[in-house]
Amino acid sequence: MSVSAILALTRSHWRAAIFALLAVVLVWGGGEWAGQRERNAQWDSLRRSAEVQMLALRGVATRYSYLPYTVAQQPFMAALLQQPTFPALRDEANAYLERINRQAGSDALYVMAADGTTLASSNWDLPHSFVNQNYRNRPYFKEALAGRPGRFYGVGKTTGEPGLFVSAPVLDGERVIGVVAVKVSLQPVVATWDQLRDPVVLLDERGIAFLGSVPEWLYKTSRTLTAEEVHAVRDVEQYGSAWQPQPLPWQTVRPGEEPGLEIQTQDTARRYLGLYESLPDLGWTLVLMADRQAVSLARQQAWALLSLAAGVLILGALYWGLRERRLRETQQVQAELEHRVQERTSELQQAHAFRQSMEDSLLVGMRARDLEGRIVYVNAAFCDMVGYRADELIGRLPPYPYWHPDDIEKHWSNSDMTLAGKAAATGFESRVRHRDGHDVHTMVYTARLIDGQGQHIGWMSSVVDITEQKHVQEQQRQREAQLQRVQRVVTVGEMASTLAHELKQPLGALVNYASAARRFAEQGRLDLLDDSLAALGKQAQRASEFVSRIQRWVRQHPEQWEVCNLADVVEQSLGLLLRAEALR
Hints:
By secondary structure, this protein is of the alpha+beta class. It is 54% helix and 19% strand. It has 15 helices and 16 strands. The chain has helices spanning 3-63, 66-72, 75-82, 87-104, 139-145, 187-194, 227-235, 293-361, 380-386, 390-393, 408-419, 467-494, 496-523, 526-554, 566-583; strands at 108-113, 118-121, 150-155, 162-172, 175-184, 200-203, 209-212, 250-253, 261-265, 271-279, 284-291, 365-370, 375-378, 428-433, 439-450, 456-465. α3 crosses α4 (87-104).
């Protein structure tokens, strides 16, 4: 191997090593950036969640602040405190407190004397009634007895259930004679915390966790308490008479200048980002946590994606060379394909033009309709036949504009028979009205219209213009009628002798009857005169009818139908035959 080849190979290895090192740095830096970005997003989410939770806590804590003060203003409350042994006042107070507590939705509402003994309560009739219980060691009682509103969270001495106690003094002038207190459960708040993915803890002013979504952490301390603080909690029995200070099972670390702490739990060995938000008006501290595993997951995902991206870049470089080579092959194939497409398009255009030329050259009208009778196609011959353009006919349903107004019923019948598939195979004759007003006689032949899948989609009709044929037939009929008239005239000449004889007899009879009538009149024989005149009239009528029949038979007249007596026709025919036979 030459020195130049070795140097080239060395440079290639160095480039590969530098590229690999750069890729590793980029992957590591991208992962750290993604982790920090997720960390910042979690802090922002904790701050927004803290604002919502703090509003909820303040709302619950202050929701019932008005209730003790309002009850303390009732006159019978002062009367009860002044006469605590009076049964009627106790019953009235118990009923009032029960009703108000039920309407307000609080846990318990009760009134205490100045010594801390409960005189009336909303739960007076329950097993754990507050009546006759003494709460003088409770801070909320002491604050109200001093004339100030009181607020205190702790475990109930009677029920053992935790709650928030809010109190107000009952005044007689300037003197405090008793205390009204209401107990409110914060469990609805805890129920919403239970639905969250990460823990939420509420600490009191001494750092004791008194509310939270993890039951095992309740009543444990977040810091070491002094002996005085422990004694103060036990003295008021805030968390029960058996409470002992135990530390929360976690360790906290402040990571640099971030807004919260990192919390590592000992029981679950998980790490959280913890945001501490103080509620100074309540003396509480809200701790919201977010699992730090999401930060690690974001970092790992970024590493995976960036590693994948680096691999894709390498594969892309390899692919680029193949792509350049195949691009030329693809261009050649595409050029051939475009040439074939152009050839095929030209063939289709020629075929379409040929088909259109055939349709335009047809003398027979073509009309296609769908199964509902809607016109979907007409050719030029059909348009010329009816005088309407294709765009004026396509899409039309019966009745069509070219139907003859005198044959509407016949058109409907033919259309219904065709759409029902009952059209005669030999076709039917139809008269249509051209747009300019003249009549066109047509012969219509209909067949099924089948698509490429063999489905019956409509009807195709061939319409033949037979108007000229009808004119020729009419002329032929008129010529035949003229020939028949000529034949009848020739026949009249042959029957001249028969006519002379036929007329001679009634005319001679008329002369004889007329002479006889004159003689009978001269003789005054009226009965015979009437008979002669009647016979004379009958002979004259006979001659007149015979002449009229000959005239009608000879004269050219349009054919018409009239009612006749068949017996008379037979009798007259027999008479003519007998007279003709007599002349032979």
